[in-house]
What we know:
Elements: H1 2-16, H2 73-127, H3 130-140, H4 173-188
Amino acid sequence: MMEKGRTEIMAAAERTYGQGAVFGSLAYDFNNPELYREEYTTAQPKARPHTQTRTRVHTRARVVTHTRQSIAPASLLGMLVAAFLVVVAILAQAQMVGISSQSVALQTELTQLEEQQAKLRIAYESAFNMAEIEDYAIHALGMQKPRADQIYYIDTSSPDKAVVFAGGENAGFVDRVSDYLSGLVEYFR
Length: 189
């Protein structure tokens, strides 16, 4: 029976395949059934042989388990590390606030010291007023400006030279002491 259906399909395919040129569209026009022959109209589905199906029902014993809820050690360790980091962050913030307040105090002290430095510089510069120094030297110390006859000019245009005297004898102890004492007398004069 199966072989008979195959031969019919092949015979129908041979008849329609390659029958000539086609003009237009080969699409089916389902709205106009008169265009098609009977063999291409709706085909009746072939009846399938009826088979009996068997179903098996498997039942399993359901095991009821009671689960205990507990915290995993890794998550507990993670929570402890997170708490430690929060405490460290809070302490670092507190230390930062302390350093910031110290910085503000040092900044105000710096501005005060800069003002004091400016005042001391003004006092220092006013202490060395040349007009006041000249007035003090003339009136308090009795100094005078030099006169023309007191000014001596030294001519240093000649080249420098040195003469070494060769002493025939070494100077004795008495000569050295007298030279030293004369040097002291000249120093205190």
